[in-house]
Write a structure and sequence with these properties.
Blueprint: E1 11-16, H1 20-35, E2 39-40, E3 49-54, H2 59-70, E4 81-85, H3 86-92, H4 95-99, E5 103-107, H5 115-123, E6 128-130, E7 152-156, E8 158-159, H6 170-173, E9 178-179, H7 182-194, E10 199-203, E11 211-213, E12 219-221, H8 222-230, E13 237-241, H9 250-258, E14 265-267, H10 275-280, H11 287-300, E15 305-312, H12 319-332, E16 336-341, H13 359-384, E17 388-396, E18 402-406, E19 412-416, E20 425-433, E21 437-447
Parallel strand pairs: 1-2, 1-3, 3-4, 4-5, 5-6, 7-10, 10-13, 14-15, 15-16, 19-21
Antiparallel strand pairs: 8-9, 11-12, 17-18, 17-20, 18-19, 20-21
Helix pairs in contact: 8-9, 12-13
The structure holds S-adenosyl-L-homocysteine, iron/sulfur cluster (SF4) and FE3-S4 cluster.
């Protein structure tokens, strides 16, 4: 395939798949290219460089990359410079360029600060591959974040995973757990707030494993960091995800009771309700210890919304194990959840286990689980009707004049936006609930 233009790309497009950490990385990749004088291509415009920031978590997600690479070919038969970044890049490395020769750059999630140099090599006709996991964090090499107005911003504070759940690729694609330094995070948060962010979501594959030393040299956990960020003037809301049950300290649970800007929402994946399966998954928590954390979280913050992730059809999962998953869902009462069919991933221990579950069994289990979870999120929304709460407006709705924002419990709430703007915090009464969102009635503007 012909690459065009052969050198000096001036415009770019970044497409991110997968988790919110990839969304964050995608933003920083855009900022990095912008700092090198490139501009983002507009909607529908051809870009000289296309960065596909990929996800390897399940087979389907990973396969998407190859169809997307194919779609980059333009009507005249040329292609842009294609850079594959993210977790597929890390997992498959140079193999991607062999399978899809139009790919000019392969760059892993810990090496993307080197993207401009790699793109320059690709522009000279080389295939540039960099899947290093350097000891010095990429964050030390990225440009300062430019001021960009956005009411809600992501901020990665922790990367990688040492947990090695037997089904999961993340420890291999993202590397070992590292925590960004306290001062760097506070500084980035301050810059985001100065740029207009009113809400920050702290991100990490194991965000609650974050540790660091504060400005006085005292060791802190995530709760200490949250308390420091709560003191930033102008920051109204703090969220964090994703947490692992084993790193759920009492300090963090208490922060849900004490810190006004910490939203009453906890994403705490359990994966399965069967302690036997949890052992085989190497989750290092049990059904009971998970339920006990949920109970403590509800004592600290009675209205806290709980969300989770589930895998059905893990190797060896019996009907009884699956019933245990349904029953932990009933006991926990989730406000929201993600559920997946187990997908065997190359190089993970579970892919080699006996007793892989038949696809039709997985389908049936997933349907039953999703029906129950949908029922629960509808019940959660219905129970919110009549409540008064603050909504942070994030985007326009489909109907003219409508604005959509998030409740403290992360529900989408739409309301008549007359006299209001994106970024406003508005106190509303929740007046009705649909399956995916609620309607709110403005009571007063809390802050503009
Ligand atoms: N660090 C987080 C989430 C990581 S990936 C945690 O520990 O919970 C996001 C979700 O993808 C996981 O919670 C899990 O439910 C799902 N997942 C990961 N690997 C999977 C696999 N091989 N098959 C199906 N789902 C998977
Ligand atoms: Fe994957 Fe488990 Fe690590 Fe989560 S804790 S990223 S599921 S290995
Ligand atoms: Fe996917 Fe990598 Fe995130 S595998 S879920 S993009 S950490």
């Amino acid at each position: 395939m012909t690459q065009s233009p052969a050198h000096d790309p001036k415009t770019f497009r970044v497409k991110s798949y997968g988790c919110q950490m990839n969304v964050y990385d995608g933003e920083r990749i855009g900022e990095l290219l912008g700092a090198r004088g490139m501009t983002a291509a507009g909607d529908g415009e051809d870009a000289d460089l296309v960065v596909l920031n990929t996800c390897h978590i399940r087979e389907k997600a990973a396969e998407k990359v190859y169809s997307d690479i194919g779609r980059q070919r333009r009507d005249d038969g040329t292609t842009p410079i294609i850079a594959v970044a993210g977790c597929v890049a890390q997992a498959e490395g140079g193999e991607i360029a062999r399978r899809a020769p139009s790919v000019g750059v392969v760059v892993g999630p810990q090496a993307y600060h080197r993207l401009p140099e790699l793109v320059a090599r690709a522009a000279r006709g080389e295939t540039a591959v960099d899947t290093d996991m350097p000891a010095i964090s990429k964050f030390d090499h990225l440009p300062r974040r430019p001021v960009q107005p956005r009411p809600s911003a992501f901020l990665s504070i922790q990367e990688g995973c040492d947990k090695f759940c037997t089904y999961c690729v993340v420890p291999y694609t993202r590397g070992a757990e590292i925590s960004r330094p306290f001062g760097d995070i506070v500084e980035e948060a301050r810059a985001l707030v100065e740029g207009g962010a009113r809400e920050i979501t702290l991100l990490g594959q194991n965000v609650n494993a974050w540790t660091g030393d504060d400005e006085r040299g005292h060791g802190q956990g995530l709760d200490g960091l949250i308390r420091a960020l709560d003191a930033l003037p102008g920051l109204a809301r703090i969220r964090y995800m994703t947490s692992h049950p084993n790193d759920m300290t009492q300090g963090l649970i208490d922060a849900h009771r004490d810190v006004p800007s910490l939203m009453p929402y906890l994403h705490l994946p359990v994966q399965s309700g069967s302690t036997r399966i949890l052992k085989a998954m190497n989750r290092s928590h049990s059904r009971e210890s998970y339920l006990e954390i949920i109970e403590r979280a509800r004592v600290a913050r009675p209205d806290i919304a709980i969300s989770g992730d589930f895998i059905v059809g893990f190797p060896g999962e019996t009907d009884q194990d699956f019933e245990d998953t349904l029953s932990i869902v009933r006991e926990t009462r989730y406000a929201a959840a993600f559920s997946f069919k187990y997908s065997p991933r190359p190089g993970t221990p579970a892919a080699e286990m006996d007793d892989q579950i038949a696809p039709e069994v997985m389908d049936e289990r997933l349907q039953r689980l999703q029906a129950l979870l949908a029922q629960q999120s509808q019940a959660f929304n219905a129970a919110s009707v009549g409540r008064t709460c603050a909504i942070m407006l994030e985007r326009t709705g489909r109907k003219p004049g409508q604005l959509i924002g998030k409740s403290p419990w992360l529900q989408s709430v739409h309301l008549d936006g007359t006299g209001l703007a994106i970024g406003d915090l508005v106190e509303v009464e929740l007046v009705s609930a649909g399956p995916n969102s609620l309607a709110g009635r403005e009571l007063r503007k809390v802050a503009a």
